[in-house]
Specification:
By secondary structure, this protein is an all-alpha fold. The protein contains one helix and no strands. The chain has a domain of 27 residues.
Length: 45
């Protein structure tokens, strides 16, 4: 592999894993509120 390919591989891996880590941190700090989720059935049914 060339040096450029290795650098691009490292950047891609860091972007993917970094995004996953940031998403998990965001969910830990701001968990989804159960009251904000839509109901299973429409109220008019």
């Amino acid at each position: 592999m060339s040096t450029a390919a290795i650098i691009m591989l490292i950047i891609a891996i860091a972007t993917l894993w970094g995004g996953l880590a940031l998403a998990l941190l965001n969910l830990r700090r701001h968990p989804e509120d159960e009251g904000m989720l839509p109901e299973e059935h429409a109220p008019e049914l």
